[in-house]
């Protein structure tokens, strides 16, 4: 188990939601057209967005898990998790642009400027893109100190994602409050003051 | 905004033969016969969902329904989606919740409390509310505020014919409707975290309520309303966003001063009193210029331009003459 968490096989775990999505698409196309309901494009966009959010929560929980439980093996997978998170976010955006808006660029632009939840989501996506693009060894070495600075923007992306989800909701606020609390919690435990407290408790 | 011409997929178009068979289908299903002639409902019939639990008097009345000139001939949204994908927060906020959690609801026996500025007030059995009124089948477009729409064959009576029975006084300016409050049968009403307050309240101006298009529905697709669609009695106001069409109505009152509606109280910036379908007035968070006509397919979301008053402008635009619709949304 510990070995698996550190191996390339971990991609099987990160890819699992994708297999599920592909299975659903296959169902809709060849087995049961109603498998995703009467609004399959919308359903797919929502599903991919949710998966991206889970991935974000997963990658944000690595550091706290290491600090509290010394789960070092998982720590080596941060890059893979981050890339997976970006991948699902990209699929989420592609599904929205291609299936929901059918590449109507005017509407895409309109949404981006006039709909704050779209702006927030798009901005978060850009940050994830910058992080994914600089996640290779070469960039890490090349950017060194600035790499760390750049990748701190990930915390802002997390906050923007929560805003994105919160602004689109009409009713299921309970679910969103839970997501928001989880993300807020994962950000707070990174705060040096908080880490200090944890250390003090441990030392006692 | 430029829009592409609507691409209709095969699945989205009801074949003419099926459409012409609709009347026969209604009669057949009322008699408990198979409804295989009708594509949308055939699946439902297979599942046994069409065995109608309504009392005999209601089934008889539904069976004698007549077609209405107000009906559209657009392709119907299949039965399984009309009854399996909708908003009825009293049963949960997910679109599939109403069907899933509405089954324990008991719509019969039912009575309606009529109060306020009318000559005749009191509590009336549903049978008496509807007695002697002839049920019409009306195929209306339904436009949800969330930018999706359906075409639904309702069965009902003009609301005006019900309201006239209670002889509203001239000082009655608004009609208030209230959904039943039964937390023991409606899980959404006892949820820990609610977006809206219950019981659900909707209000129409008296001229809107008396308008011939305004329907009090008691059935859909040839049978009585399933619980998830607002059994046994719901409003259908086709030129307004779906949330105005209040479900499972237990109270009706005639008033002079208009109370706030449920959604107005929850979020006045996003949900106005009128809630007329209007492509030019965006919801603060999304555009209302287009809608997805359901069902869509994965690679064709079936986006169509939204029409003013949901395509009923000829009938209702005069009600709002001189009103700035961007202010009174």
Can you tell me about this structure?
The complex is a heterodimer of chains A (204) and B (329). By secondary structure, chain A is an all-alpha fold. Chain A has one domain (2-203). Chain A has twelve helices and no strands. Chain A has helices at 2-6, 10-31, 40-60, 62-69, 72-75, 78-100, 105-114, 116-133, 137-143, 145-168, 173-188, 192-203. With 329 residues, chain B is an alpha+beta fold. Chain B has a single domain (64-320), classed as Sulfite Oxidase, Chain A, domain 2. Chain B contains eleven helices and 13 strands. Chain B has helices at residues 16-20, 22-30, 39-46, 56-63, 79-82, 97-101, 126-130, 159-165, 206-209, 262-266, 313-316; strands at residues 66-67, 111-116, 122-125, 136-143, 148-158, 174-179, 201-205, 215-220, 223-224, 234-236, 249-255, 290-293, 303-305. Classes of the chains: A mainly alpha (204), B alpha+beta (329).
Number of domains of chain B: 1
Distance between the termini of chain A: 31 Å
| Largest sheet composition of chain A | none
**So how many helices of chain A?**
12
- The share of residues in helices of chain B is 10-25%
The structure class of chain A reads mainly alpha
As a whole number of angstroms, the C-alpha radius of gyration of chain B is: 19 Å
Biggest interface pair, counts: A-B, 33 and 37 residues
Please indicate the count of domains of chain A: 1
Q: Percent range for helical residues of chain A? A: over 70%
Q: So, the CATH homologous superfamily of chain B?
A: Oxidoreductase, molybdopterin-binding domain
Annotated CATH architecture of chain B: Alpha-Beta Complex
Classify the beta-strand content of chain A into a percent band: under 5%
Poorly predicted runs of chain B = 1-49
Calculate the mean pLDDT score of chain B and round it.
Answer: 88
**Oligomer, anyone?**
heterodimer
Q: How would you spell out the order of helices and strands of chain B?
A: HHHHEHHEEHEEHEEHEEEEHEEH
Q: Helical stretch count of chain B?
A: 11
Q: Overall 3D geometry of chain A?
A: globular
Which regions of chain A are unreliable across 5 or more consecutive residues at pLDDT < 50?
A: none
Q: Measured on Cα atoms, how large is the radius of gyration of chain A?
A: 19 Å
């Amino acid at each position: 188990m510990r070995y698996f968490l550190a191996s390339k096989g971990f991609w099987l775990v990160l890819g699992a939601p994708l297999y599920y999505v592909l299975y659903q698409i296959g169902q809709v196309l060849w087995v049961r057209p109603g498998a995703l309901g009467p609004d399959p494009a919308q359903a797919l966009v929502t599903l991919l967005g949710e998966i991206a959010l889970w991935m974000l929560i997963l990658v944000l929980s690595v550091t706290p898990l290491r600090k509290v439980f010394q789960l070092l093996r998982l720590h080596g997978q941060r890059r893979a998790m981050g890339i997976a998170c970006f991948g699902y976010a990209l699929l989420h955006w592609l599904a929205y642009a291609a299936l929901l808006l059918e590449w109507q660029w005017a509407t895409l632009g309109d949404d981006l400027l006039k709909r704050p939840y779209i702006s927030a989501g798009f901005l978060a996506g850009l940050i994830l893109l910058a992080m994914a693009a600089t996640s290779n060894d070469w960039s890490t070495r090349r950017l060194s100190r600035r790499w760390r600075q750049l990748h701190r923007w990930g915390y802002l992306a997390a906050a923007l994602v929560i805003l994105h989800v919160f602004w689109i909701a009409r009713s299921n606020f309970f679910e969103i409050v839970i997501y928001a609390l989880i993300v807020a919690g994962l950000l707070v435990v990174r705060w040096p003051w908080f880490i200090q407290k944890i250390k003090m408790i441990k030392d006692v | 905004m430029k829009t592409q011409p609507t691409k209709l997929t095969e699945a989205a178009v009801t074949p003419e033969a099926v459409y012409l068979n609709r009347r026969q289908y209604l009669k057949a299903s009322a008699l408990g016969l198979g409804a295989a002639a009708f594509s949308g409902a055939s699946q439902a019939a297979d599942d046994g969902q069409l065995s109608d639990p309504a009392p005999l008097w209601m089934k008889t009345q539904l069976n004698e329904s007549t077609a209405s000139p107000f009906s559209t001939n657009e392709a119907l949204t299949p039965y399984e989606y009309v009854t399996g994908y909708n908003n009825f927060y009293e049963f949960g906020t997910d679109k599939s919740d109403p069907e899933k959690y509405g089954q324990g609801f008991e719509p019969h026996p039912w009575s309606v409390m009529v109060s306020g500025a009318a000559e005749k007030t009191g509590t009336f059995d549903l049978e008496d509310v509807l007695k002697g009124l002839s049920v019409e089948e009306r195929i209306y477009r339904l436009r949800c505020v969330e930018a999706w729409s359906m075409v639904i064959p309702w069965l009902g009576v003009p609301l005006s014919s019900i309201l006239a029975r209670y002889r509203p006084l001239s000082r009655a300016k608004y009609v208030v409707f209230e959904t039943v409050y039964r937390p023991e049968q409606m899980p959404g009403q006892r949820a820990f975290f609610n977006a809206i307050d219950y019981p659900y309240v909707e209000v129409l101006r008296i001229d809107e309520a008396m308008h011939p298009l305004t329907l009090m529905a008691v059935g859909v697709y040839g049978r009585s309303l399933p619980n998830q669609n607002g059994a046994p009695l719901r409003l259908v106001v086709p030129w307004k966003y779906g949330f105005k069409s209040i479900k499972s109505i237990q109270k009706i009152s005639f008033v002079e001063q208009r109370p706030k509606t449920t959604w107005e109280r929850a979020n006045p910036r996003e949900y106005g009193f009128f809630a007329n379908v209007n492509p030019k007035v965006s919801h603060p968070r999304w555009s209302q210029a287009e809608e997805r006509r359901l069902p869509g397919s994965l690679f064709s979301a079936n986006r169509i331009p939204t029409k003013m008053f949901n395509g009923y402008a000829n009938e209702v635009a005069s009600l709002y003459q001189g009103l700035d619709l961007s202010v009174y949304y």
